[in-house]
Amino acid sequence: MIELLSSFSWTQLLQPQWYIENGGLWLLLFVVFAETGLFAGFFLPGDTLLFIAGIYAHNIGEGPNAEPGLAYQFLKHFNLGHIQNEWVDLIILWILISLCGVLGNMIGYWTGRKVGPAMYNWKENFFFKRRYLEQAHDFYEKHGGGAIIVARFLPFIRTFAPIVAGIVGMNKAKFTFYNIIGCVAWVFSMLFAGHFLQKWLMASFGFDLKQHLEYIVLGIVIITTAPVIIKLVGGKKKAAATAAGSNATAENADSSFSGK
C-alpha cells in the first residue's frame, strides 16, 4: 500500500488499466457506482474501464503464467475459485457491475429529489460543474424517460441524468425501470465487446489488445464523447443563429417604425 501511494500520480485516475492492476474488481465496482452515486463521472473512465474489464474478465496475462481474471476475485470468497469458465466469469461481472450502476443511479435520483434544485446554485469545483447539470436537463427534456437509458452511453450526461430525473419528479417506478434497462445494456455492450474482441483478435491475428490499451482508451473516448461535442457545437450555432435572427427582426421593426 505504501509503495502504491508513493508512486501515485493524479493522472493515473484517467488510466483505466491502473484501476484494474491496482484495485481489481472492487475498485472497478466502486468506480461504476461513483460515476453517478458520487457525481464523479466527468473524469472517471467508465466506458473504457468496462471495455478493459471485459479483456481481463477471464484471465490476466497469457500463457502458463496467466492469473485468474477479475471474476475470480469474487468467486474465491465463496470457495468457487476453481470454476474457470469464461461465460461464468462474464455473467458474474455483468451482474455485479450492473448492480453497482443501478445503485449509483438510484442515489443520484434520490439526491435530485431531495436537494436537486439547490444544486443549480452550488459553487463549481473539480467534482461539480453546473454546465453538465444543465446539459443533462436539456437532454432529459428532449428525450424524456428514455434519456435515462441513452445517457448511460454518454460521458458527463450519465452522471447528472438521474439527478435531473429526480429534480423533475419522474415517477420512481418508471425511473427504476429505465435505470435497470440502461445499466444492463451499457455493461453488457462494453464488457462483452472487450472480451470477445480480444479473443477474436488473438485467435485470428495474434494481436493482443492488452499491449495496446492506450489506443483503446483513445478510440473509446473519441466515440463516446463525439455525440456530446457535436450536440454542444450544434447548440451554440443554433443559439447564435436564433440570436442573429432576433436582432435582424428587431432592426427591421425599428426601421419600419422610423419610416412611419
From TrEMBL:
Primary site of residence: membrane
Bilayer topology term: Multi-pass membrane protein
Entry keywords, A to Z: Cell membrane, Membrane, Transmembrane, Transmembrane helix
Family annotation (PANTHER family): INNER MEMBRANE PROTEIN DEDA-RELATED, TRANSMEMBRANE PROTEIN
Keyword Iron-sulfur: no
Family of the protein in this entry: Belongs to the DedA family.
Gene Ontology cellular-component terms listed: plasma membrane
Transmembrane annotation, as ranges: 23-44, 87-110, 147-168, 175-195, 215-233
Protein name as catalogued: VTT domain-containing protein
InterPro entries in the record: DedA-like, VTT_dom
Keyword Transmembrane helix listed: yes
Domain VTT: 89-195
Places the protein is found: Cell membrane
